[in-house]
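can u do me a favor
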């Protein structure tokens, strides 16, 4: 028993001697507090010492300060000025990085860096001849407050005798760089390489840019006409001209007359009677060209491919046509001399040479000449002191042939008098379409938004506090600052209903003092609620900024347009072909017309006239009339509402004609048709088929058209909206009255993509978007962009383009590419449709022979768009009764479009969209 008691007591004593976890934790906390206390005392002491040292350097530290200052200047020299700051920063760094190996390396590197700087100062101040001992360096630093002091002087005193002053400099600089790398952790070599790479890339880009400019300038010189060339001084005085002058003159004559001899135009004129002086000048020019100018003439002949020797022309300044490489003449070095002999008979020794008959007389050329492509590419003769003779033309019989000598016609020689010249009827080649440059548009200076980072954080904190006051705990997860609004993404705690946040919209607006807010609950694809608050200052989005963005440049579609910038500040670019039709609505002044200008200008910057054609309908007269004359227009801008129905009906007829061509060629859409035509042309087959351009029909104000000819306009729009996508015809319709009598159910059902600007009420918003939200917009381009295929509309700030910029682009297009030549055939068809029967019958609208209901096709299109089939939906959208809707549903089942009844569930859609398009084409 005694043993057991002893053992038990021993265990108890051992247990009492071992501290518990709580006691250990208390000891650790107490120790940390003591360490923190001592660290703070140490820091305050360092701050005081550093401050005293710093003020002592400027003689305001008293007697003690002067003594300490002299000591440190003697010790470190000039470095003593920054020693207090180094001491303070180094102490903070050491305390905050205790136990850190990297920090120790940086501290050692800093000490070496300061020592090497001191040595460098000592070397700079003293030099090799005035090298001081350490004590002398100390005294020098105290008295002059310069140099490296005792530390720098000692290092210099050691290294200079061993390595010399240059070696000491090299060692010092290398150690400075090494210590700097240790302290900063940055590689100097890497920085040098990066800088060198940037310089190389900049030089490379500059070189490429200059090369591109040089190529463009060269191309422009080849394309442009040579005009205003004066050859008045090419006749030399035989008594005074030297061989060098004759060489220069002959060379100038050769180069200047190359365009005349080989131009595609016809020049004819009379040649004055040759005098003895002229003959002497010609003989001297012959000798100069054969002798000293031979090398120059050969080089000119190679460059211009012109076989011309000596042609003496005096006092002529004319406009010459473009040179063609196909009409080049053999090398001048292989030819004899050429003479202008207007009155001399042909030389018997040159009977084998071809002779070209011109109205002014024959031009005898040496050797065979290549056959000209057309009669317009004949050689020309210019007489001195020539005057215009508009009535003279080249004879058809003057076509040049190799090896055939044609004698001059006496009547033609008689009709050519001195001082007459004929200007050619130059055949202009088809110009390549020149795209407008973004530099035509005004560059808007970017202003900083009033919402700084501090303001955004304060607003986020206020928003979080406001919701917390109403019992909703949330966390702000992200802030997206856009051009006009800022979206705060908040994540509510578990158990908080989204509807509770939505119901607090007015309270949030009150506490944030905002003009209006919009709540997106939830954000599609995110577990967060978005609260959109207007910015204090809006940032303008310029159209030039959008078209210079990579998103617009990389868009492959020819009818892509830059919408604007979303809340995140990203450029939004969309394709009209994928919409495929667009409905734009909003109140007056909300930005509809600017949006339409953006669409039109995007197409002008993206597509050629042979790729995209435009039809514009502008009942307001003043909005789109500025575009009259651009090459993309098929017909002039339609301003009469009565003629608008005719233009729409022509588009329906064009769509029907295209579908017939598709059926004949076995293709299904415009892209396949154009690929087939291109393939046939590449294979060399002779085909009458031509590529079809895409057509974009833009209606600026639908309400005016509906007031004048509602039935015709609605039927044509519905017909196009249902079928025109595959034919490459797309509608863009805008209205400022988004009411149900303007945007009818049929139009809404067939216009899947919408853009809503600011409206006055939620009713109008629901008419456009089938949901509220547009009444919360700010105006001035603030829009809800709702293209086909996304679950909820996206808020976008539209681009701004001024009327002046539009006018500049239109003037450039009409000036560089010519004014549009409208098709009279199309205009006649539009006029006939407007004056005659403008109604385009929709299949089944009046009850066809097949017994189908008038709304059969409309109902089928609606069901395919919504991807579900129910009688109630037909009643709501088509505004018909139950019995009629049930009959239509039965007819759709018989046609194989929808499946049989499945109780209360919606019927299944049996056809795909491609099969449905084929069904429509077969039932035309």
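np, heres the sequence
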């Amino acid at each position: 028993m005694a043993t057991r008691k002893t053992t038990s007591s021993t265990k108890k004593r051992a247990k009492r001697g071992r501290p518990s976890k709580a006691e250990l934790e208390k000891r650790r906390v107490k120790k940390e507090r003591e360490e923190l206390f001592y660290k703070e005392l140490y820091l305050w002491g360092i701050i005081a010492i550093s401050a005293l040292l710093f003020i002592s350097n400027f003689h305001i530290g008293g007697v003690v300060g002067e003594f300490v200052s002299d000591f440190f200047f003697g010790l470190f020299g000039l470095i003593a000025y920054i020693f207090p700051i180094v001491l303070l920063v180094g102490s903070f760094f050491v305390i905050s990085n205790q136990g850190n190996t990297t920090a120790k390396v940086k501290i050692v590197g800093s000490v070496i860096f300061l020592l090497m700087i001191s040595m460098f100062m000592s070397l700079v101040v003293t030099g090799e001849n005035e090298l001081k001992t350490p004590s002398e360096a100390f005294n020098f630093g105290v008295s002059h407050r310069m140099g490296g002091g005792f530390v720098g002087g000692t290092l210099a005193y050691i290294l200079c005798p061993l390595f010399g002053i240059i070696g000491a400099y090299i060692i010092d600089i290398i150690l400075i760089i090494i210590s700097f790398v240790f302290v900063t952790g940055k590689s100097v070599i890497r920085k040098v390489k990066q800088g060198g790479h940037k310089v190389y890339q900049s030089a490379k880009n500059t070189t490429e840019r200059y090369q591109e400019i040089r190529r463009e300038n060269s191309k422009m010189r080849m394309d442009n006409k040579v005009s205003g060339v004066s050859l008045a001084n090419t006749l030399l005085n035989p008594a005074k001209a030297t061989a060098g002058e004759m060489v220069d003159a002959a060379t100038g004559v050769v180069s200047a007359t190359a365009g005349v001899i080989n131009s595609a135009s016809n020049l004819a004129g009379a040649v004055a009677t040759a005098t003895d002086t002229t003959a002497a000048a010609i003989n001297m020019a012959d000798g100069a060209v054969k002798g000293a100018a031979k090398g120059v003439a050969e080089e000119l002949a190679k460059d211009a491919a012109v076989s011309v020797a000596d042609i003496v022309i005096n006092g002529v300044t004319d406009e010459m046509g473009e040179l063609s490489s196909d009409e080049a003449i053999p090398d001048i070095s292989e030819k004899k001399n050429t003479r202008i002999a207007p009155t001399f008979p042909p030389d018997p020794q040159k009977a084998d040479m071809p002779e070209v008959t011109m109205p002014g007389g024959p031009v005898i050329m040496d050797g065979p000449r290549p056959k000209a492509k057309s009669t317009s590419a004949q050689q020309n003769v210019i007489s001195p002191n020539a005057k215009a003779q508009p009535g003279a033309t080249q004879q058809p019989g003057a076509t040049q042939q190799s090896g055939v000598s044609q004698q001059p016609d006496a009547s033609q020689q008689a009709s050519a008098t001195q001082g007459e010249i004929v200007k050619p009827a130059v055949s202009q080649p088809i110009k390549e379409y020149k795209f407008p440059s973004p530099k035509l548009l005004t560059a808007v200076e970017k202003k900083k938004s009033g919402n700084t980072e501090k303001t955004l954080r304060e607003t986020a904190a206020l928003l979080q506090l406001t919701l917390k006051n109403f019992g909703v705990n949330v966390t702000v997860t992200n802030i997206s600052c856009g051009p006009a609004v800022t979206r705060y993404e908040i994540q509510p705690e578990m158990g908080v209903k989204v509807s509770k946040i939505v119901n607090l919209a007015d309270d949030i607006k009150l506490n944030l003092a905002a003009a209006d807010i919009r709540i997106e609950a939830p954000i599609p694809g995110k577990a967060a609620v978005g609260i959109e608050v207007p910015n204090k200052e809006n940032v303008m989005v310029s159209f030039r900024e959008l078209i210079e963005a990579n998103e617009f440049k990389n868009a492959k579609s020819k009818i892509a347009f830059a919408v604007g910038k979303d809340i995140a500040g990203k450029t939004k670019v969309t394709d009209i072909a994928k919409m495929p039709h667009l409905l734009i609505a909003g109140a007056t002044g909300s930005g509809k017309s600017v949006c339409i200008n953006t669409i039109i200008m995007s197409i002008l910057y993206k597509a050629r006239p042979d790729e995209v054609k435009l039809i514009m309908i502008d009942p307001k007269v003043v909005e789109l009339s500025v575009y009259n004359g651009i090459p993309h227009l098929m017909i002039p801008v339609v301003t009469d509402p009565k003629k608008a129905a005719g233009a729409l009906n022509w588009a329906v007829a064009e769509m029907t004609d295209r579908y017939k061509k598709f059926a004949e060629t076995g293709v299904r859409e415009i892209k396949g048709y154009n690929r087939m035509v291109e393939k046939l042309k590449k294979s060399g087959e002779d085909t009458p088929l031509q590529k079809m351009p895409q057509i974009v029909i833009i209606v600026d104000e639908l309400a005016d058209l509906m007031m004048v000819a509602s039935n015709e306009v609605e039927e044509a729009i519905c017909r196009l909206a249902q079928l025109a996508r595959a034919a490459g015809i797309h509608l863009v319709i805008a209205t400022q009255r988004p009411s149900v009598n303007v945007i009818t159910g049929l139009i809404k059902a067939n216009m899947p993509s919408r853009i809503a600007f600011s409206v006055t009420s939620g009713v109008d918003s629901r008419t456009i978007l089938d949901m509220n939200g547009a009444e919360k917009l700010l105006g001035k381009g603030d829009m809800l962009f709702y293209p086909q295929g996304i679950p909820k509309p996206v808020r976008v700030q539209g681009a701004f383009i001024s009327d002046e910029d539009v006018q500049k682009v239109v003037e450039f297009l009409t000036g560089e590419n010519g004014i549009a030549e409208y098709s009279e055939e199309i205009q006649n068809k539009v006029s006939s449709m407007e004056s005659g029967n403008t109604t385009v019958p929709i299949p089944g609208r009046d009850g066809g022979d097949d017994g189908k209901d008038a709304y059969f096709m409309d109902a089928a299109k609606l069901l395919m768009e919504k991807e579900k089939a129910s009688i109630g939906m037909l009643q709501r959208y088509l505004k018909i009764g139950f019995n009629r809707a049930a009959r239509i549903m039965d007819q759709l089942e018989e046609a194989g479009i929808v499946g049989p009844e499945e109780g209360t569930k919606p019927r299944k859609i049996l056809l795909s969209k491609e099969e449905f398009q084929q069904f429509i084409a077969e039932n035309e």
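The longest strand covers residues 474-481. hope that helps!!
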